[in-house]
Amino acid sequence: MYYLKRLFFLFFLLEISPKLLGQQVITITIDEALQLAIKNHAQLKVTKQQVIINEQEKEITKLNQLPIINTSIKASYLGDVDLFDGTFSKVMTQEIPHFGNSLEIQASQLIYKGGIVKNSIEAQELKIDLTKLSLENDEQTIKKTVLDYFLNNLRLENQIKIFNNNIELANQRLANVTQFYNQGITTRNEVLRAELLVKNLEQTLLSLKNNKAIIDYNLSILLNFPKESIFTLDTSNQEWDLLKEKDYYIKMAFLKHPSLLKLEKQLLLSDKQIEIIKSEKYPTIALFAGFNSQRPITTRVPALDLYANAWQTGISISYNIDNLYKTKEKQQLGVFQKQQLEYTNTVLTQNIEMSVNSAYLKYFEAIKQAEIIYSSLKLAEENYKISLAKFLNQLIIQTEMIDASNTKLEIELSLNNAEINIISQYYNLIYTTGTL
Description:
The protein is α+β, with helices and mostly antiparallel strands. It has a single domain, classed as Outer membrane efflux proteins (OEP) (Up-down Bundle). The protein is 65% helix and 15% strand. It has nine helices and eight strands. It has helices spanning 2-12, 30-40, 42-62, 116-182, 188-222, 246-256, 258-278, 323-392, 398-432; strands at residues 25-29, 68-77, 81-84, 90-94, 99-112, 230-234, 284-295, 308-318. The strands form three sheets. It has a four-stranded antiparallel β-sheet with strand order 2-5-7-8, with no helix packed on it. Strands 1-6 form a two-stranded parallel sheet. It has a two-stranded antiparallel sheet with strand order 3-4. A hairpin with a 5-residue loop joins strand 3 and strand 4. Helix 3 packs antiparallel against helix 4, helix 4 (116-182) runs antiparallel to helix 9 and helix 7 packs antiparallel against helix 8 (323-392). The longest helix has 70 residues, at 323-392.
């Protein structure tokens, strides 16, 4: 459409002076800005580390598939044995070998526990998927934050240009009023009024420059650039036309939004946790084997200074009887928690659909608003030219000239905001689908 083409052209002509001492001007496209945002943002490093932690926890859980092996080695000094009769009177002291040592090895292998090991491993895999989706969600949020910074930066760049231009025009009018005053055509009050207008414009310009400096500083931190950097957004080769119908973006959100995908994984994890709880109702069956070597043999008198070696192997079955009445309540809690997630999924799906619908309509509203304001600007510019011609010919007083100037300035600022809003609403729509 015509207006969007004009918008692209206006942004292509945007310039920021790079002559600030010691400062580096960085021109960057929106796509480059978004890539840098997810590459350098500190918050993402935290979430990525959590992915690594969950992957390691999975490896630890997998170790439960391996046998448990315990070993014990002891060396001791054994004292002589005192023997007493039934009245605790000492009968004799029996000497025994004083050096004692033992070696014990025990091994066991779980072979059945209601599938608890398998389900625990699968639960850890789901937790890894959840963390990765949290990472995607964080990336979306960070991209949106950085994009808003850049669009505000672009808005301020345009406003600075607009105010510089209006200050130049105001200085020209001040020169004209001063000339009229020197010629005795107007009063000193008119000169003061013109000077005050220039000062007001300069005051606002100072605030705009400071606001831009704040955003530049914040972006330098977020994107890991030198803190003296000045950012300018290159939008010359960007297009913001929506080529699809609203239903396309709603379906895209349902398929790809990280929050919905995360909730789906949470539901699967809830099922796994219920299965893990159910496994408590089953007995624990394990194979075991052991070996024991001990010296001296003290099970007889006198003790023998010999090694007694013994081994064993078999199968063990254990069961916690209290699980018969505890597991049911735990399982019911898991069911309630899953139902809560299902209700949350319904609410989230509705909210995302409403957000996409709102963003879609706001995008086209932004285009229409900009077109209306552009038409108003043409009228304001024509009114300004007519008022300026009348003012120079002393057909109107300066108050009317200032009104025309202020009207033109106000509409120029509104148009700048409207142009930026088109870009903002376009990316906001993409953000609501979770695919920014």
